[in-house]
Amino acid sequence: MTLLIISPDYASHLLPLATLGTAWQAAGERVVVATGSATASIVDSFGFERVHLQLGRGSNPGIIKAEDQPKGEDDALRGFFAATRLGMVETLAFQASARKNDLLWDPVDTARAVQRVVDEVKPDRVIVDHLAFSARLALLAHGTPYADVVLGHPSALPVGDEVYGYPPSWPRAFEPDAASLAALRALCDDVSASFTAEWNAALDGLDASHLRSENAFAEHGELLLFNYPRELHEPARTALLPAHEFIGSAVRSEAADDEVDAWIASSEEPFVYVSFGSFLSVRGDVLARVLAALASLRIRVAVAIGSADRAELGDLPADWLVREFLPQVTLLAHAAAAVNHGGNNSVTESMTYGLPLLVLPFSTDQFAGAAAIEREGFGESLAPNTATVDELRAALERVLALREPRLTALGESLRTTPGRERAHAALA
C-alpha cells in the first residue's frame, strides 16, 4: 500500500503531516511526500520518498525571514509583520486582504501538477494539508478521495454562520470595538466570495464545472482529521462538523541533541520553554519583555529566539539555554510551563505533556487557540503588544502555580494514543 502526503513547502506544515506518515511506515507501507525543495531534508530525515511539487511562491525550512523569500513574497511578509504591531483586527484584516492573491497560486497549472503526481505515484491513500487549496482543488477535479488534515485550529473549516478569517472567539485581553469587528467581518465575507469565484474559475479550467462551490472555504475531503484535541473543542461546534476525527496531536520524534540533553540534566530546577514559532519570532520586542519577566522570577529558561535580533533581547542569564532553533518536543517533555504565540503545533504539543501555557497570540487562528486554553483553565493569554513586564510576570506566576487534573489527564491521553495512530486507524 502507498500513502501520498501532499504538503506546502513549510516546515511547520510538513512536520506534523510527516509524523502522521510514520504510522504507515511502521506498518511496512510505502510513504511518498509531495512538497518543495526547501523542506527536502525534512522528508529525508523521516526516510520517505519525495516527489517535487511547488504549491506556492514562498517556503520555510524552519525559520522564516523576509529576505529569504522571492520578490513580492518578501514585501508581503514585511507587511504582515508590521500589521502584528498594530493589533488583532489590523493583523486579521491584512491577512484577509492578502488571501485575495496568495491562497490559489497559479491554480490550474498547479492543480495539473498535483494530478500528474497522483497519476505517477498511484497512491492507495492520500492525506493533504487543508490549507493546500490548489492541491485539494486538483484532487476534487481528479476524482481522487483524500483525507483532509486541518493542522491549525478547527475554525480553519468554517461551520454554521462562521466566515473564514474571522475568529469565532478570542481571549479576554483583546477588546476590539464593534465597528472594527463589523468592518473585519465584511472584509472576510468579501474575500470568501472572491476566493469562491476564483476556485470555481479554476474548476472550469480543469473541466470540472459540475463541481462548482457556493463557499470554497467550506469545501473539504471525505474525512477531516483535526490535529487538535477533542477536549479543547466546544461540543456545540463539534456537532456542526462533517465526518471527522480529532487526532489530538502529531508529536514527532526528534534526533538527540547533546547540548540540550546536557542542559536538561544539569539541574533539577524547573524551567520554562519559550518560542514564538518560525514566523512570529521576529517580534523581538515582545520576546524581550517575556524574558525580562522570566528573569525576575529567577527560573531557568530555554528560549528559541528564531529570527529575533539577539541584541534586542539584552543580557540573559548564563544558565539559560538560548539558541536560534531548539528541539521543541524534547524540551516540552521536561518543562514546567511554556510561553508561545498560540500556533497549533505549539499548543497541541504542549497539551501532550500536560503543560500550562501563557499564550500571546498575534494572528489567524492563534486567537481561537488562546481562547480555548483560557476557557478550559489550562493557562492564560495576554495581548502581546500591550502586556507589560509586570503583567507578564504575574501571569507567569499564576501559570507556574496552576495544578489542573484535567490538563494532566489530557496529556496522558495524548501520549497513550498518539495522533499518528489515531489517523492510521481512521483511514484503515
UniProtKB/TrEMBL annotation:
<dbReference type="InterPro" id="IPR002213">
    <property type="entry name" value="UDP_glucos_trans"/>
</dbReference>
<keyword id="KW-0328">Glycosyltransferase</keyword>
<dbReference type="InterPro" id="IPR050426">
    <property type="entry name" value="Glycosyltransferase_28"/>
</dbReference>
<keyword id="KW-0808">Transferase</keyword>
<dbReference type="GO" id="GO:0016757">
    <property type="term" value="F:glycosyltransferase activity"/>
</dbReference>
<protein>
    <submittedName>
        <fullName>Zeaxanthin glucosyltransferase</fullName>
        <ecNumber>2.4.1.276</ecNumber>
    </submittedName>
</protein>
<dbReference type="Pfam" id="PF00201">
    <property type="entry name" value="UDPGT"/>
</dbReference>
